[in-house]
TrEMBL record:
<dbReference type="Pfam" id="PF00009">
    <property type="entry name" value="GTP_EFTU"/>
</dbReference>
<dbReference type="InterPro" id="IPR011779">
    <property type="entry name" value="SO4_adenylTrfase_lsu"/>
</dbReference>
<feature type="domain" description="Tr-type G">
    <location>
        <begin position="23"/>
        <end position="237"/>
    </location>
</feature>
<dbReference type="GO" id="GO:0005524">
    <property type="term" value="F:ATP binding"/>
</dbReference>
<dbReference type="InterPro" id="IPR050100">
    <property type="entry name" value="TRAFAC_GTPase_members"/>
</dbReference>
<keyword id="KW-0547">Nucleotide-binding</keyword>
<dbReference type="GO" id="GO:0005525">
    <property type="term" value="F:GTP binding"/>
</dbReference>
<dbReference type="InterPro" id="IPR000795">
    <property type="entry name" value="T_Tr_GTP-bd_dom"/>
</dbReference>
<keyword id="KW-0808">Transferase</keyword>
<dbReference type="InterPro" id="IPR027417">
    <property type="entry name" value="P-loop_NTPase"/>
</dbReference>
<protein>
    <recommendedName>
        <fullName>sulfate adenylyltransferase</fullName>
        <ecNumber>2.7.7.4</ecNumber>
    </recommendedName>
</protein>
<dbReference type="InterPro" id="IPR009000">
    <property type="entry name" value="Transl_B-barrel_sf"/>
</dbReference>
<keyword id="KW-0342">GTP-binding</keyword>
<dbReference type="InterPro" id="IPR009001">
    <property type="entry name" value="Transl_elong_EF1A/Init_IF2_C"/>
</dbReference>
<dbReference type="GO" id="GO:0004781">
    <property type="term" value="F:sulfate adenylyltransferase (ATP) activity"/>
</dbReference>
<dbReference type="Pfam" id="PF22594">
    <property type="entry name" value="GTP-eEF1A_C"/>
</dbReference>
<keyword id="KW-0067">ATP-binding</keyword>
Amino acid sequence: MTTTNSIAANAYQTGGEAQNDHVSALKFITCGSVDDGKSTLIGRLLVDSKAVLQDHLAGVQRQGETDLALLTDGLSAEREQGITIDVAYRYFATEERKFIIGDAPGHEQYTRNMVTAASSADAAVVLVDATKLDWKNPSLALLPQTRRHSLLVHLLRVHSLVFAVNKLDAVEDPALAWKHIQGALQAFAQAAGITVRATVPVSALKGWNVVDAHAGWCGYTGPTLLQVLEELPNTPADTALAPAFPVQWVEKFSSSSDTSQGRRVFWGRVAAGTFAPGTAVQIFPSGQLATVAQVLDHARRPKYVPAGTSAGIILDREVDVSRGDWILAAPTAAAAPAADDDFGDTPAATPAWPASRELQTTIAWMDDDPLVAGRVYWALHGHRWVKAKVKAVVHKLNINTLAEEAATQLDPNAIGHVQLVLQEAIPAAAFGQARVLGSLILVDTASHKTAGAVLVH
């Protein structure tokens, strides 16, 4: 764990203009346990970075004092109960960078909301409330939700994780509490295999070490939380992989008289690799081969489009492609026979993204009913829906000990290893290799509720 002021410095080397465009904006979420101060922290970031107008501040007064949490808790139920229920997004900018903040709820009941926010984030700030811990104990135990959110952030491949130890101003010995809590966080991260970018002691209420430094407090001399965030890298897109493109929408312009290429545009977001004119592709599941004739960006300008970017693809000929299909890199050609008199079978071409019906997965379960073997769900992969049956629950993860425990079911908000069997094969890949191709969601066939987040091994 590092708290130096050179965090990810080499990963964020861009010019002044590039740092202020939407591409370099850092998308991060705040998460952690209930009442750890997530909404207050975001309010402090907005106020101290001068991103809130005076009339807006006047509208979040309680008993003559500014309630920073109200800057993000906008639902009436949130203001009445003093909790965060849904993810609230806020935007602000400094001279160095633009930011998009997602305020995720801390209640275990709303874990699915937190997972939704984390799935598209570049970084996560996990808050730790010092007043809730046995901070005098060097071997103190972290709160279950702190562990759960940290593990989910790690599983979802959020590129950067930062711990912010909050409310140290409310304990008797801030320096001792900081030392013990920092040690507990470091031990937990090492045991879980989580890389932590920084750990910062903060007081969201008073603003210490959030935007402005509070010199020497807790014996900490590192950067403020905002300085850490300004230097974090964006999540790198999977551009080095073979091209893969889930079709979201088919646009027809059959009235065109140009017959030199297909007369439909297939729109979506590139999942992996880069698409450019001349790219040889194969349609999944039909298996038809084609060549990319044109690639359009979001403004319909012809150009090559890398992973993570929306695009429209026009093929060199008319091919039956529908929403939910995939446009994948063409299979690698098989080697030619050694001689003309060699009657051995010609090896089959190797697909760039092999399809499979059986998947070994890690599932973060979010439904109220437990996940058990034999249940059937709808699975969404890219924009393709297929039926998925739970073959077996292999084990569940004990978030306190990080041990893999034998299990026959996954209870709400549990994380475990599950074997799935699909009704149809899909071009799934390991989530650690490709985020889009390696992720699915499970949806209950009766209630249509999102039941689980699936990461392919």
